[in-house]
Amino acid sequence: MKHKFTISLNKVTENLELGFEEKWIYVHYKKGAIEKTACLLKNDNKSEEEYLDAFFEDNQVSEEMKKEVKKFLKSGIGHKDEHWNEFTNFLIKALSLNMVFGITIALCVFGGYRLGALLDNRYGIYPTFTLIGIFFGIGFGAITVYSMVQKYFKTSIQKGKGVKKSLNKEQENDKSYPIIDVTIDEVRKAIRAFSDNLPKGVYRTILVQDDNCIDFNQLVPHLGGIPSKKFYMSKETYDLFEENEKQIPLEMDIVQKAVDLFVKEHKEFPMLKFDPLHKVNYFQLKQEQYLKEEPKIQFYITDLDGLITHIKPRKKKMGNTSHS
Length: 324
Hints:
50% of the residues lie in helices and 15% in strands. The chain has eight helices and ten strands. A four-stranded antiparallel sheet has the order 1-2-3-4, with helices on one face. It has a two-stranded parallel sheet with strand order 5-6. Strands 7-8 form a two-stranded antiparallel sheet. A hairpin with a 2-residue loop joins strand 3 and strand 4. It starts with a strand and ends in a 15-residue tail after the last strand.
C-alpha cells in the first residue's frame, strides 16, 4: 500500500511517495527538478523512521515533509496498538470461556455431591447416593459444556461453510475468465495496482505460489483475464520473469536471504571490495554456511540497499562496501 505526501514550499512543490512492503520500503521523492527513487531493504533491526532518516538526509528533504512522515508513522503505531488490543480482547474472551466451562462443571459436580450426600444422610446408606450424585454431576456438566461449545462455535462454523461456498463459486467462475495475451510490463502494472489495494500487513507475496508462479486468479480484476503464458516472481525482490527464466526467481530468493543474513551479522556485503561489478561472492556465503551450494546464476548487488539482480551491470563505481 502506497502513501503520498505533498508539501508546498513557496513556488516549489515537494512530493513523496512511500510504499511499505514486507522486505523493503519503496521511496519516490521529487522536488523541483530533483527526482530520486530508492528501495530501502529492511535487513536490520531498525524502525521504519530510522531507515527513512538516511534517505531524507542524503536528499535534503525539508523539515515540513519529515514532520508529515513522522506523524504518519506514529499513526501506524496506533494501528499496531489496535491489533494488540484485538488480540488481548480475544485472549480475555477465550480465557473467560474456559473459566465458564470450568465453573459449570464444578457447580454440576458440587450439586450432584450435595444432593447425593443429602440422600445418604436421609436413608443412611453412605456413600451410595454420594457417588451416584458425583457421577451424575460430571455427566450433566459435560453435556452442558458440550451444548455451550456447539452454540458458541455455531457462527464460526457457518462462516467457514460460507467461505468454502464462495471459494467454490470463484473456482467455477474461473472457467469463464478469458485467456488473454499480456506483456510483462502489463503484469507488473497489475501487480502494483493489486498491491496498492491490499490491507496493512498483507503483501504481494500472496500472489506467488510455491514454484514462484503467479496466481493470476487474483489479478483478473486488473488484467481482465488469465494470461496465456505463465509469469514468475521473486518473493524476496518482487522481480518478474517469463517462462524461459523461471529458474531465476527460485535461486534469487535463496541468494537474497543469504545476503540479508550475511549483512545482518557482518555489517558488510558479501563481495570483493574492489569488484566494479559488485558480484555476490558465493565463496563467502558458502564458507559462512549461508549457502549450501553455489547457484548456477551469477547475481549482483545493486545500489538499492542490498537488493540483488541477475542483470550484469554495465559499470560500477569502486568504493567502500561497508553497510550502514
